[in-house]
Request: fold
Amino acid sequence: MDAPTSRIILTDAFDTICDEIGAEYSDLEIYRIDAEDFLIEHAKEAVERAVLTSDRDRILLLTALRFTPIAQNKLLKILEEPPEKTHFILMTPSKSGLLPTIRSRLVIENRLVSKEAVESGVDMAKFDLAALYTLLQENRRIDAKGAAKLLERLAKEAMQSGRYRMDEALLESFSEGIRLLDMGSPPGFVLTRVGLKLLQRRR
Reply:
């Protein structure tokens, strides 16, 4: 049996994927840390578990709806230089909430069940300050989860339109927006911030 590959799995079916991994690697030591919000204490637990000596290969399954930036930074060093025979699998529904430094170090495997796309309702060819204002008014009661999905859709539609300079700074502003929502920033504030950044990059 080949050794498992450390990776990110995009999914919201955590239990199903964990069961599949457990069945595939039944001879390995498997340790799971599950949280709705993966916090610094969860990251510390993962690091402590990873450095324990063991004769067997082991997999650390880290599953969460959201990984906080401070927890990701805590994991960064051990993901860069994992102990021998230790493999990490991070599971989360969206890669946009993961830091670029994390995404660049792990293979990303998409295991999301296809869902009907959520349309932003924005005509990217005519997106201006008035359109941004309308978008904010239409979504003034949106919650953080809905705002995160809306940001993801806006990013995809902006790329597909070809009317924006989708450079690293703009993509990072979308990722930063997701992180701000995770930390409790008001959705209206985040949508305004990212919308203005998008307008600045219009061709």
